Amino acid sequence: MRKSSPLRLIIFMTALLLAGSWIPQRFTVTITPSLWHRIYLLDRAPSKEQMVRNAYVLFELNSRYLKGAKTQKTLKQVACAAGDMLTVKERSYYCNDTYLGQAKDYSLKGERLPHLEFEGVIPKGSLFVFGTHVDSLDSRYFGFVRKEDVIAIAYPVF
Question: Which residues form the Peptidase S26 domain (predicted)?
Answer without folding.
Answer: 23-154
